[in-house]
């Protein structure tokens, strides 16, 4: 079984998990991605895919903590894919294309002093997912949807 372990089968129904994310709470940043990583390990998913999902989820989670007032992360696990939807209430992203550039950051000085806000978050999410969709409304918030397939794509 290339790509997935015996833990995820075609008969499995989609599993859904939801996590609240509080803006400014760097102590809990990474809570959701860590929990999902444990679940995916229990499902015997390919370790390379688990790593990709964990990196993308962590980056999305830290973005909410660093930039928004609050948010939520929903994770949908099925035999074919892991889909993650992150919604936040915050300032929004004025220029998504610019924000996707490595090194571009709007993080505050306080966030940077804590070692976050290097401008790698969105580009790391893109590198570690198969599909990425970002929608943002200024002074309202941002929705990030990412999908990672559990099986390698056929050549």
Account of the protein in words:
The chain has 155 residues and is an alpha+beta fold. The protein has one domain (15-149): Heat Shock Protein 90 (2-Layer Sandwich). It contains five helices and five strands. It has helices at 31-42, 47-67, 96-99, 109-113, 121-127; strands at residues 15-22, 70-77, 81-89, 131-137, 141-149. The protein has a five-stranded antiparallel beta sheet with strand order 1-2-3-5-4, covered by helices on one side. Helix 1 packs antiparallel against helix 2 (47-67). Mean pLDDT is 85; it is low at 1-6.
Question: SSE layout and pairings?
Answer:
Layout: E1 15-22, H1 31-42, H2 47-67, E2 70-77, E3 81-89, H3 96-99, H4 109-113, H5 121-127, E4 131-137, E5 141-149
Please provide a brief summary of the model.
It is built from five helices and five strands, in the order βααββαααββ.
Largest sheet: 5 strands, antiparallel
Shape field = globular
Low-confidence stretches: 1-6
List the strand order in the largest sheet. 1-2-3-5-4
Q: Domain count, please report it.
A: 1
CATH topology: Heat Shock Protein 90
Considering DSSP H and I runs of 4 or more, what fraction of the residues is helical? 25-40%
Strand content: 25-35%
Question: How confident overall, as mean pLDDT?
Answer: 85
The name of the CATH superfamily reads Histidine kinase-like ATPase, C-terminal domain
Order of helices and strands: EHHEEHHHEE
Number of helices: 5
Radius of gyration: 16 Å
Instruction: Give the second-level CATH assignment, the architecture.
Output: 2-Layer Sandwich
* Name of the level-1 CATH class: Alpha Beta
What distance separates the N and C termini?
A: 17 Å
Structural class category: alpha+beta
């Amino acid at each position: 079984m290339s790509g997935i372990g015996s833990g995820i089968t075609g008969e499995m129904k989609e599993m859904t998990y939801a996590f609240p994310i509080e803006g400014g709470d760097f102590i809990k940043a990474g809570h959701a991605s860590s929990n999902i990583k444990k679940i995916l390990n229990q499902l015997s998913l390919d370790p390379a895919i688990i790593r990709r999902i964990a990196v993308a989820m962590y980056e999305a989670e830290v973005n909410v903590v660093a930039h928004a007032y609050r948010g939520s992360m929903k994770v949908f696990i099925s035999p074919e894919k892991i889909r993650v939807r992150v919604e936040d209430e915050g300032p929004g992203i004025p220029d998504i294309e610019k924000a996707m550039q490595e090194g571009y950051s709007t993080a505050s000085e306080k966030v940077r002093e804590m070692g976050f806000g290097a401008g790698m978050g969105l580009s790391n999410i893109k590198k570690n997912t198969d599909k990425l969709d970002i929608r943002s409304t200024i002074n309202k918030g941002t929705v990030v949807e990412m999908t990672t397939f559990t099986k390698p794509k056929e050549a």
